[in-house]
What does this fold into?
Amino acid sequence: MKRRAFTLIELLVVIAIIAILAAILFPVFAQAKQAAKKATTQSNLKQLSLGIIMYSNDTDDVPANAIGNRSEWGNSARWCETWSLTTQPYVKTYDVYRSPLDGSKTLGPGHEWKGVAISFAANAAAGWDNGLKLFGVMGFNNRTPEHPGEGWEMPSQSLSGVAKPAETVLLGERHNDTAAASGGAMATVFSSQFFEVDWLNWLSGPASIPGAVEWDGKARPADTGKPGDFGKTQSGAVTPKSSGQATFAFTDGHVKSMKPVATNPDQWKKPELNMWYRDR
It folds into this structure.
């Protein structure tokens, strides 16, 4: 019996069908992969928030400072006591401090002394109110026994004093790759935090909280995605990689994904909607 071969037209039709199916399915696979990474990010933030809460249960309801000192190490220990270091015994592994959406796992040559690259930052928002004042949840301190009158000392306050714990940010996404790409000698320090005031950015690169409006009433530009604009747009120093959204952990321990600017749509005309201030 004579075997019939495929014609050229039949082969082209089969190839076209395969190409159409691939074009339909590949985006679905990519979306599924992105959703899985987002779910892991949410899970990691949940574990970190619970670690911070467990730490505070052992310290009279006061969470660790976002960044501070090891007083027993003397003057050379400035900025080495960090929330990621302090809470690590409650979390056990530094893998949890990373988001799979973060494209960079290392700090790069010459920056290894800063520790490990992490993808989240603490709410240490500070502003000027007759002096530098902590408005966020986790504080900071760089005073040492040798120089007790120098620097800043704004330690963390009790979690029970947060006015709206379910609406107050504790941690947010701030990826190592975006921070590193933005430049700055300290951009990838493993103890990153959101400070709000721009002149503290030298500690860990861009650290501005999100917001649609600047302090002088001018509108912030929409997100551009350009490394040089990181920290200067409506998302501030939050990294929004999930369709313009980022994941946040709140002071009561729950996590939520939302557009960064939604956490602070207008802190001047609508301060009650600012999710970074503990006593609003």
Observations:
- Residues 9-273 form one domain.
- The chain has a mean pLDDT of 82.
